[in-house]
Amino acid sequence: MYNEAAYVAKVLEQVKQCGYNCQIIVVDDGSTDATKEELLAVSGITLLQHERNLGKGAAIRTALAKVRGDIVLIQDADLEYDPRDYQQLLQPILEGKADVVYGTRFAGGGAHRVLFFWHMLGNTLLTFFSNMLSDLNLTDMETGYKAFTTKVAKRLVIRENRFGFEPEFTARVARMDLRIYEVGVSYSGRKYAQGKKINWKDGVSALRCIIKYNLFDRL
């Protein structure tokens, strides 16, 4: 979470109602609003805090070090992605079919809010370029919904601090000889006035990361 005071209570309530016995790890990524105070009032979570804003990739690195369960599922704090989709995200792993599951916004799934043509086009092009270099056939590399086993998490090396996590993660798992699945999920995108944070600079960074982690940094 970063400056999500308005969403803290709602997102955590929905996660707690997901129907699974899970460890909820929340990383407050240096929030400057009332997010910290809201989180301190919530029980039943593992709260980790960054002194300053470092970005999504850094927050995920911090959280992965504290994971105790068998499966990791990443939930952004803004509720663009709906925790009611956990069942279809986790099912391929629970059935022993998959090691990694992507929740795609562009292939089936539930309701989708109609927003931002250029964001959609940018996501599609980045996914296409990532697929060319990783030899995967994903429809939504940039999705925020990614689930994977703890065994995969222990093998991951994540260097990116911001949204470059998405293409770096994809490049890493593509070389691990894993069973990768996609399932359709619903999506309720936010406008910038509602707190959306990703921008065109992150798109340029994603392109850099696709090249770097598929061609050069190949741990």
Automatic annotation (TrEMBL):
Protein name in UniProt: Glycosyl transferase
UniProt key word Endoplasmic reticulum: no
The UniProt record lists the keyword Transferase: yes
Source organism of this protein record: Geoanaerobacter pelophilus
CDD domains according to UniProt: DPM_DPG-synthase_like (cd04179)
GO molecular function: transferase activity
Record domain Glycosyltransferase 2-like: where: 1-114
A Pfam family that the UniProt record links to this protein: Glycos_transf_2
Key words of the record: Transferase
